[in-house]
């Protein structure tokens, strides 16, 4: 998985750990990898040349771009032991990013008034993965006055063909996104138990943030240690300024409203968010972070197993432990430095027990009222989407070499401050 860290021998792993590290379905065909390395470049200059050739455009737009791309490509080539499918996936994701940047800049050049669109009082749901952020966002998305991006729009932010031309209905991007999900759940059916994704429901804006390199998407998928070091040191203000441009474009294309956003990486970027969106409303969800660490390790290992012949669950456990601690330290430092900043705290156990009350608590800070129609739609959604309707997600700390007692000690600063109870269910 990482070239400088050997895969543990099978006897050092749990049964589930062995299943991750030594999957029977991976052939490790060297010919397939050599072909992928020749076909799918990870050289930044070659990628930019291909993107220009595909679009006939030349301007990649403002903000972070060349340097993070260079660091990311070097880390993918030199540090990460991708298999053929992983190499292809990394190449295609970077190509999509570059092509989209070219198309966005072309659209802004031809329609400069897009960037005059107001983005007023966006709501940012921040919290660790597995802490109820998706659940809360989908409940609030029943409110027709809120603007959010469905999965298909996050996957394809610009229409197929000419971006400013009329779009056929239903939008063909919906079917394309559904086909991609069908392929994902065919290859990794267990993902549905871990994180339910629906083409027309909201998802976190990881892909949109990636356009400005202010996203953890690349480290979630590929580890890329040098790029992670670069990302942690970077000032992401310009990345969030680019993200704002993307939001303005989406509402210009499909209509606006008060944005409802959520992603875990916002936790360590609140200074940048409040600089770019000074009237933003911040909502933080809280759940046992050790449970979140183990669950996210399982989700990550499952998600990356097609990119590596031998995913290393111990590397994943160590990385996710560090990432969770990093995110909590980031938001804790911000809140200590800005004690007057109003942030709505939502405990996971309270959200599960009484979701409507939690939504009303957020609306009180936003100056909004939950109407009877909104409440009826939320209740309808709750009835149609019970927890674990696709089955439970089974995981264990031992599978990823995570020492529960050590993690509880390391994260006690957060659990004590926000009175988060330990679940001890790992």
Rg for CA atoms: 21 Å
Order of helices and strands, N to C? HHHHHEHEHHHHHHHEHEHHEHHHHH
**Class based on secondary structure composition and strand pairing:** mainly alpha
Beta strand % = 5-15%
Number of strands: 5
How much helical structure, as a percent, in the residues?
40-55%
Low-confidence stretches: none
The major pleated sheet works out as: 5 strands, parallel
Structure characterization notes:
This protein has 426 residues and is mostly helical. The protein has 21 helices and 5 strands. A 5-stranded parallel β-sheet has the order 2-3-1-4-5. The radius of gyration is 21 Å and the shape is globular. The two termini are 25 Å apart. The model has no long low-confidence stretch (mean pLDDT 94).
Keywords, separated by commas or semicolons:
54% helix, 426 residues, mainly alpha, 5-stranded parallel β-sheet
Could you outline the blueprint of secondary structure elements for this entry?
Blueprint lengths: L14 H7 L8 H10 L4 H12 L10 H13 L5 H27 L12 E4 L6 H8 L5 E2 L3 H5 L16 H16 L3 H4 L11 H5 L6 H6 L2 H9 L3 H18 L3 E5 L7 H7 L4 E6 L2 H16 L8 H25 L5 E5 H6 L1 H12 L5 H13 L19 H7 L1 H6 L9
Helix pairs in contact: 2-5, 3-5, 4-12, 13-14, 15-16
Summarize the structure.
The protein has helices at 15-21, 30-39, 44-55, 66-78, 84-110, 133-140, 151-155, 172-187, 191-194, 206-210, 217-222, 225-233, 237-254, 270-276, 289-304, 313-337, 348-353, 355-366, 372-384, 404-410, 412-417; strands spanning 123-126, 146-147, 258-262, 281-286, 343-347. It has 426 residues and is mainly alpha-helical.
